[in-house]
């Protein structure tokens, strides 16, 4: 175990010289971590600012490494994607998030949705629909409370996107376009794909107060989403000023450090307990 820890430390410091070996080591570590169940989900609340209530959470994966501690997704998701390990990891995330959401429902907390990030490797997989169908059956989650976050790049192949998203919609789950505005934006396709929600990327939100272009972009995305009957949520909200701007543009669903960071299960439950109406 000690040796492992040492090796693992070096693999998180990418160097161009031995990246092949590092990748292989990291790949093996991820495989092992999946087997040993070292991954853990944090949940970041999504707030309806009109009511102040938590309407959902986004599940965000971390690696609870025995020697390195909590490793953020940026350090392992790219390799998991490259190696295809994102498929079993993503399935674990989906199943765990659904089980957790069901537990919260059974504990009597007000209904909330859970949003799960999907990678393009999962999206193009033939059996995504089958996997999700199984998870819905196993966990008994009401499909309307499961939201998948996809990115615009996944909809590049219009035919595949229409087919997969159509099947997912038939299951009754929600679809959100994540990081909206950073990729291939075409609002016409949004309608075609029957998207339920757009998530305005945090890079636009960050500079809302200082960059009038970003403020205009955000205002335009919100207005167009409303016109198309698509919900809109802003992520990366850190300040009261950003929140006030979003509210002035009629964007009332937000996620960000201003309210809460991603939290472990116990802390979310504490929060839900405090806001429960008895
Ligand atoms: P993302 O989907 O865009 O997730 C939002 C990221 O922004 C999260 O980082 C979150 O902690 C962070 N964030 C939330 N509010 C704020 C804020 O107010 N200010 C700032 N500066 N940041 C904020 P995190 O958890 O490190 O995740 C990073 C990325 O890793 C995610 O970006 C997502 O692309 C990926 N990821 C995380 N979990 C999963 C997963 O289960 N599957 C897949 N495929 N990707 C995942
Ligand atoms: Ca996301
Ligand atoms: Ca995002
Ligand atoms: Ca992002």
From TrEMBL:
Residues 23-276 form the EAL domain. This is Diguanylate cyclase. The chain holds residues 454 to 731 of 735 of the full protein.
């Amino acid at each position: 175990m000690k040796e492992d820890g040492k090796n693992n430390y070096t693999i998180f410091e990418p160097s161009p010289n031995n990246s092949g070996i590092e990748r292989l080591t990291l790949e093996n570590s991820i495989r092992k971590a999946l087997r040993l169940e070292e991954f853990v989900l944090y949940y970041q609340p999504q707030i309806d600012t009109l009511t102040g209530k938590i309407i959902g959470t986004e599940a965000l994966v971390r690696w609870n490494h025995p020697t390195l501690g909590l490793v953020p997704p940026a350090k392992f998701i790219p390799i998991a994607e490259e190696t295809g390990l994102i498929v079993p990891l993503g399935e674990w995330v989906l199943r765990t998030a659904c089980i957790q959401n069901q537990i919260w429902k059974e504990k009597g907390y007000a209904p909330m949705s859970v949003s799960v990030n999907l990678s393009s490797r999962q999206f193009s997989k033939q059996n995504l629909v089958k996997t999700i169908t199984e998870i819905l059956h196993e966990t008994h989650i009401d499909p309307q409370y499961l939201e998948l976050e996809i990115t615009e790049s996944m909809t590049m192949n219009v035919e595949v996107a229409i087919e997969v998203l159509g099947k997912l919609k038939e299951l009754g789950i929600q679809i959100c376009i994540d990081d909206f505005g950073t990729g291939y934006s075409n609002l016409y396709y949004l309608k075609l794909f029957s998207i339920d929600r757009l998530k305005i990327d945090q890079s636009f939100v960050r500079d809302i107060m200082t960059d009038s272009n970003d403020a205009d972009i955000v205002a335009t995305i919100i207005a167009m989403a409303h016109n198309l009957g698509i919900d809109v949520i802003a992520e990366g909200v850190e300040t009261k000023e950003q929140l006030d701007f979003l509210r002035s543009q009629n964007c009332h669903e937000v996620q960000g450090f201003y309210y809460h960071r991603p939290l472990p299960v116990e802390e979310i439950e504490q929060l839900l307990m405090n806001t429960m109406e008895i």
